[in-house]
Amino acid sequence: MLSRQLYICDIEPVYLKRLAIYLNRHPGFLWRIKTSTSIETCMNEHPDVLLVSGRALEDIPDLECIESYRGFSGCRVILLEDDSKKFEYFPAIQKYQSARKVYESLLELLGEQAKHHTSIIGVYGAESGLEAEYRSIDIAEAEREKGEVLILPFTEYTNLKDDIAEGDGLEEWFYYRSQEQGTPRRISDYVYTVGETDYVRGFRTVYDMKEVSLDLWHCFYEEELKKSRYRTILLIFDHLPEHLELFFWCDEIRVIWGKGSDGKMRKQQFKEMAVYMGMSELMDKILEG
């Protein structure tokens, strides 16, 4: 995979440089990236994937040449759509958006060829949801050595400041996804950054979260978590989720049971519940703290 080549072609060298720098920052994007302002240079290189702007394609006078190149040597052409002529031959990514969204669109179009493994870690505060939030921040700092980290709170309350905690987030993603109308929203539309960690605001009330169907949760997992650009995603729980299937998304679940006999009781009750529901394999994911 490391030998596969992605060529980016556009008439703006500054744009090319900035986009290439951003893509190269992500170790999970397994492509050798080259850039050129000349479509002819790109064609002579025979890349595996060509990301080319409409302006650059205008340098080719014969549309038949574009169509013939579309299947040449197995190259896949993706249009970097700008304000020039529209080309219906190729899948398109909007040029005039953030580098992050260009990256995420590439992940979606290239599918398995571009994916890296995102580690999903659940943090469950069986004793205290606030303790789970504090613990998630510590985990995020440790995981940041491997790459970018995103925190998603599935909690009823938060210890974040009001000016940070208020605003659109998970609730809006699920709302627009359930409508299935208009432009689909991406979770990246709701990301905000504190320090070096990215966050998405949670649901406004626990009741809104409970109303989300399991089918919509599966959509969220398939469309956002599995295709995420992040190296690590932390899911914070202060209660058992309405659908325990959410725990199965996690590669591991860090649980704060609490101290003493109360903590031992919570752990034993969780184990008994998992066995009763036929989900005893959940215990293999559990790490204390």
Provide the fold topology.
Layout: E1 5-9, H1 13-24, E2 32-36, H2 39-45, E3 49-53, H3 54-57, H4 63-70, E4 76-81, E5 92-94, H5 99-110, E6 119-124, H6 129-143, E7 149-154, H7 162-165, H8 170-179, E8 191-194, E9 197-200, H9 206-210, H10 214-225, E10 232-237, H11 245-248, E11 252-255, H12 260-276, E12 286-288
Parallel strand pairs: 1-2, 1-3, 3-4, 4-5, 6-10, 6-11, 7-9, 7-10, 11-12
Antiparallel strand pairs: 8-9
- Count all strands and give the number: 12
The computed structural class is: alpha/beta
Helix content: 25-40%
Q: Main sheet, how many strands, which sense, barrel?
A: 7 strands, mixed
**The CATH class of the largest domain:** Alpha Beta
Query: What is the average of the pLDDT values?
Result: 80
Q: Which CATH architecture of the largest domain is right?
A: 3-Layer(aba) Sandwich
Q: What is the count of distinct domains?
A: 2
* Bulk shape: elongated
Radius of gyration: 22 Å
Features:
single chain; 289 residues; alpha/beta; Rossmann fold; 2 domains; five-stranded parallel beta sheet; 12 strands; elongated
Description of the molecule:
This protein has 289 residues and is of the alpha/beta class. The protein is 38% helix and 20% strand. The protein is built from 12 helices and 12 strands. It has helices spanning 13-24, 39-45, 54-57, 63-70, 99-110, 129-143, 162-165, 170-179, 206-210, 214-225, 245-248, 260-276; strands spanning 5-9, 32-36, 49-53, 76-81, 92-94, 119-124, 149-154, 191-194, 197-200, 232-237, 252-255, 286-288. The strands form 2 sheets. Strands 8-9-7-10-6-11-12 form a 7-stranded mixed β-sheet, with helices on one face. The chain has a 5-stranded parallel β-sheet with strand order 2-1-3-4-5. Strand 8 (191-194) and strand 9 form a beta hairpin. The two termini are 37 Å apart. The mean pLDDT is 80.
